[in-house]
């Protein structure tokens, strides 16, 4: 009996082993078949004949769409083939999305010069903004931390946004459509501050953004140099002459004010000043000699391009930025450099010249003799009673292009605000002006405080550069509207976010160093 049981046990064991081996063999055969099938389906192993057979249906479909839909059909195919991957990249990879936004904000107006008048190119920037916001909320679904946003600037930005949305029910506002079109670039674009604050998390990406920023400014300076010294390209000439208002305001004494790749000379000139201030700050970094030489060569080129714009309001911005630089970074070398620059400036202001560009530059420092300045001063005096009698203003979009479009017969439709601060006072009242000035003050105060708190020299210099950029835009917002045009509105809020980002990265760096030191002492 024992022998019988033993035989059964050993036989069963052998059967189990045989079945196991059989299953292993079957799996190997199955895997080898699947592997062989995968190898055959791999694109690298396709023959030309296979590729032709597979692509014929797609070619026929594309041909049919183009024949039936014409240029709209072709654009639709291009949007699917190119647009969908870009959309995915913007939503899933915020650093890529921010890069696309910055490039588009610089180049979109220049590209629009190829397109028919009235093409709503601004929708593209709106779409990029919405995709970045959507990607932000997707990421926040898996990240419940909000400490990134706990700073004074964030609270004031939210208050300003709330006030902008309350303007939608302003009883004096002549048109809700004017509010809809204006809130996109005046109010809603401020949401990008939170996107920048949350999504910019690496110092390497900050460096990349600065290189991109200065590179696009260099492209604009080259375009302005070409327009001044070699004349307009054919499509540029068509665009300049297509609007009588451009000819009226930009063709002065037989000479065109240049816009380069931007929408107007003001945006061009202000961004050239911003590029100069950034270069001055970056020269003070511990970087290679050739990079410092490059920065020092770019500074006079950007200044020359600024002069081509003929914007007198921009001429005082660089001296103002240098004065703030001397105050914040008070040392013998900086003060000496600023004094030397001031001395050169005085020579240029008072020297006799017949050059129309230099004469226009000199007139910026003697505003009482400038007819356009006196006209603006008179306009401000004339609108002052209206501002005082309307605490919440006449409604967002009640002045400027949207006011003339949606409420042409209103009192404010044809009022030229010129100044960004005057526009805020007229559209949003003295309450809005107080809130706006408080926001600007808090941004600068926070930046200056952070500058002195940051210990890392590189991050400290980046913070300083952004303080000067914000200061330049704020000073320039008095004689002109500095914060309503692309790319200035995008760059302003990116600079505001970087004030807090640099401090955050510095704190993280110090914590990492402290942890490393503690660990080494423990070991």
From TrEMBL:
A GO cellular component annotated for this chain's UniProt record is: membrane
A molecular-function term among this protein's GO annotations? ligase activity
Keyword field:
Ligase, Membrane, Transmembrane, Transmembrane helix
* Membrane topology field: Multi-pass membrane protein
Where located? Answer: Membrane
Q: Which residues form the O-antigen ligase-related domain?
A: 302-437
The transmembrane residues are: 43-65, 71-91, 121-138, 147-166, 178-196, 208-225, 268-285, 297-328, 334-353, 386-404, 424-447, 459-478, 490-507
> Which InterPro entries does this entry report, sorted A to Z?
O-antigen_ligase-rel_domated, WaaL-like
One Pfam family, short name: Wzy_C
- Superkingdom, natural source: Bacteria
Keyword Ligase in annotation: yes
Q: What is its main location?
A: membrane
Matches recorded under PANTHER family: LIPOPOLYSACCHARIDE BIOSYNTHESIS PROTEIN PA4999-RELATED (PTHR37422:SF13), TEICHURONIC ACID BIOSYNTHESIS PROTEIN TUAE (PTHR37422)
Name used for this protein in its record: O-antigen ligase domain-containing protein
Per the UniProt record, the source organism is Mucilaginibacter terrenus
